[in-house]
Design goal:
With 166 residues, this protein is an alpha+beta fold. The protein contains three helices and five strands. The protein has a five-stranded antiparallel β-sheet. The chain is globular, with a radius of gyration of 15 Å. The mean pLDDT is 95.
């Protein structure tokens, strides 16, 4: 396994829409292992392939307190919003380090995805897991959590991150 470089906002590559994987092969399995290692190293709970400049529809999640329940989602899609009532969560992002913003999202969704064995799965998820899945799918669609906040706040974050990059 190896650590991958995480792209930092406002890197334009974060806006790339990821391509479907289709067939799960060894390269996708290796990618998911590397992504999990990178996510754990960064103390994150989710990481999309787009964030490591690989534009395939893959993301990894582990919301367990002891980081022992990794999940890999390949070619994910939200097929149904099971609870249209939106809840507000303070979201962070490995591509927007040091910033947490309130984002409103549906609290329960049904998601379809392919697992590492190449099998299509359907899962009803809620609460924090639903938030993370929606956040990561947004990444695969070239959307970031800063797109949900005011343009003034987004510009302030952009400037601060550009300043720390120099």
């Amino acid at each position: 396994m190896s650590l991958l470089k995480i792209l930092i906002f406002p890197d334009p590559r974060l806006r790339t829409v990821a391509e479907p994987v289709g067939v799960v092969d060894e390269s996708i399995k290796k990618l998911s292992e590397d992504m999990l290692e990178t996510m754990y190293e960064g103390s994150g709970i989710g990481l999309a392939a787009t964030q490591v400049n690989i534009h395939k529809r893959v993301f990894v999640i582990d919301i367990s307190p002891d980081k022992t329940e990794p999940r890999v989602f390949i070619d994910p899609e939200i097929v149904e919003i099971l609870n249209p009532e939106k809840k507000s969560y303070s979201e962070g992002c490995l591509s927007i380090p040091g910033f947490y913003e309130e984002v409103k999202r549906p609290s329960k969704v049904k998601v379809s995805f392919t697992d590492l064995n190449g099998q299509r799965q359907m899962d009803e998820i809620e609460d924090l897991m639903a938030v993370v899945v929606q956040h990561e799918i947004d990444h695969l669609n070239g959307k970031l959590m800063v797109d949900f906040i005011s343009s003034v706040k987004r510009e302030m974050i952009r400037k601060k991150l550009l300043k720390t990059k120099v």
